[in-house]
Structure formats: C-alpha cells, structure tokens
Amino acid sequence: MNTRRTMVAARRAMTAVAITTGLVLTVAGCGGGGDEGKSDKGSSPTASAKKGDDGEDKGEPEAPEADKALAEVKSNGITLTITSVSRDEGGFLTINGKVTNGTSGIWVGSEWRSDENELKKNGGSLAGASIIDQQGKKKYLVLRDTMGRCLCTKFEGGINESQSVDWYAQFPAPPEGTSKVEFQVPTMPPAPIEISEGE
C-alpha cells in the first residue's frame, strides 16, 4: 500500500513539474517574442522618423526639382513645360521638358509637325518647333539627321488623357552672347527661356 501511494504521489509530482515547466517555457517564449516584436515595431517608426528628419535634405529637394519649370505655356488643353535649356559643346542647344494632355481624348501632336517638306514625315512630333533669338533677329529650326528625321521627340501612339510625356528638341545654338530666346511650337504661345551653359 505504501509503495503504491508513494508511486502515485511521485507521478502527481512529476505531472505538476511537467505542467509548470511547460507553462514557464510558454510564458518565456511568448514574452520574449512579444517584446522583440514590440521593440522592432517600436523602433521602426522611430528609426523612420529619425531617417525622415535626417533625410529631409535628400527627400525634399527631389520634389521641387520635379516641379521646377523654366517656362510653361498652355493651349487647347495641352500644357507644355520646359525644364532645361543647355548649350552643348558641339554647337547645339538642347531643350527638355514635359507635355501634359489635359483634353478628354488621346492627343497625337499632329498640329506640332513641321511644314517643311523634309520634316513632314515626322508626323506628330516637335518637328515644327523653333527658337527665336530676338536680339540677333534670327529663327532657328529643329535639327534633323541625314534621313530627314528631326532631333526631337516623336509622340508615337499619342498621349492619353491626363498623362504626361517627357520630350526633347535640339537646335543650332545661338551665338555665345545670346542668353535669352523664345521657344515656339505651332498652336502654342511663345515661351521665353534662358540658356544655361552645358558642362
């Protein structure tokens, strides 16, 4: 009888120890994981906030640069923005910008094509663009290659409603003393721009 009671008591003690050990391990596992999760989650926003504070110089200048425009003209729902005008070493003037379609359909740029026979094949493009040097009283047309293709953007397939597309056009550079010109494309008002020297 005593042996049986001792064995039963020993089994109960072992069961209690096993349950207690299991509970301790469970609590330790949950507590450790929860603390780690909380510390990770808690530190991430703080780190992000600190990075945001430290990284303001990196993040904020990009937005103004994207919005920076040297000139902007609008006509018939189309907005033409000029973002850079630079004189290249080879005697070229390169103008870059963005065109935004604010109409209710696809805009193909057909009204911007050139009247010149050689450039008529360029279709919807900036082939009809020109720059006017008021000081020198001279008009410069878009450059073209030996095949008669303009050195400018061609709006393949058009621009969908509310979309914007980057563009470029190259011209012969006005004389070194000329720092201001007017950029013109058919159906748009002239855009006065300042030339910056290329690197």
From TrEMBL:
Residues 50-65 have a biased composition (Basic and acidic residues). This is Lipoprotein. It comes from Streptomyces formicae. PROSITE patterns: PROKAR_LIPOPROTEIN. Keywords: Signal. The lineage of its organism: Bacteria, Bacillati, Actinomycetota, Actinomycetes, Kitasatosporales. The keyword Transport does not apply. Residues 1-18 form the signal peptide. Residues 30-65, 178-199 are annotated as: Disordered. The keyword ATP-binding does not apply.
